[in-house]
């Protein structure tokens, strides 16, 4: 089975849709690894490798940001520099099934995320930055996690 079909099945089994065909996909594939990426989308991969794994993106923004629209108003996008994935962004809500390796989920409060990750290395009004881990979390106007970014770890 190709990687795109596995990704689609993953989305189905983890709550993006409910189809019986998804029963054989492994829910662990919805884990986001800070500084690494997703099970089937990693930092450092080429655009061709991503397209082979996930299929053609829904949108191509300026030739370096590529977007996949997901069910429940969720979105996966990645940025490419020198034909390599350098950043991954997930936008979601409480129905979005992606979870970080430490257990952070969309819809959590800032306090809940900090309980899992500790004090941030930097923060803005609605964002917690964990540069040494390679992840940041953005919170919406209701204080719930609505976006996360994965990037290479930076040792300050």
Structural class: alpha+beta
The tally of beta strands, per DSSP, is: 12
Radius of gyration: 15 Å
Kindly report how far apart the N and C termini lie: 42 Å
Low-confidence stretches: 1-29
Percent in helix: 10-25%
The best one-word shape is globular
Element-by-element helix/strand order:
HEEEHEEEEEHEEEE
* Number of helical stretches of at least 4 residues: 3
Main pleated-sheet profile: 8 strands, antiparallel
Strand content: 25-35%
Describe the secondary structure blueprint for this structure.
Layout: H1 3-16, E1 31-32, E2 37-38, E3 41-42, H2 47-54, E4 59-61, E5 65-70, E6 74-81, E7 84-91, E8 99-100, H3 110-117, E9 122-124, E10 127-130, E11 135-139, E12 145-151
Parallel strand pairs: 1-8
Antiparallel strand pairs: 2-3, 4-5, 5-6, 6-7, 7-12, 9-10, 10-11, 11-12
Helix pairs in contact: 1-2
Write structural notes for this entry.
It is a single chain. 19% of the residues lie in helices and 33% in strands. By secondary structure, it is an alpha+beta fold. The strands form 3 sheets. The chain has an 8-stranded antiparallel β-sheet with strand order 4-5-6-7-12-11-10-9, covered by helices on one side. The chain has a two-stranded parallel ribbon with strand order 1-8. It is globular, with a radius of gyration of 15 Å.
């Amino acid at each position: 089975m190709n990687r795109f079909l596995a990704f689609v099945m993953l989305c189905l089994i983890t709550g993006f849709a409910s189809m019986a065909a998804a029963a054989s996909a492994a829910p662990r594939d919805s884990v986001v690894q800070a500084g690494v990426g997703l099970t089937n989308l990693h930092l450092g991969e080429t655009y061709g490798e991503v397209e082979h794994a996930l299929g053609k993106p829904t949108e191509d923004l300026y030739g370096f940001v590529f977007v996949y629209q997901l069910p429940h108003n969720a979105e996966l996008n990645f940025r490419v520099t020198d034909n390599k994935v350098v950043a991954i962004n997930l936008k979601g809500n409480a129905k979005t099934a992606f979870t970080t390796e430490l257990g952070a989920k969309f819809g959590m409060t800032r306090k809940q995320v900090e309980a899992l990750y500790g004090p941030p290395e930097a923060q803005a009004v609605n964002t917690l930055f964990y540069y040494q881990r390679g992840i940041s979390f953005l919170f919406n106007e209701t204080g719930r996690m609505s976006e996360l970014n994965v990037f290479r770890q930076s040792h300050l």
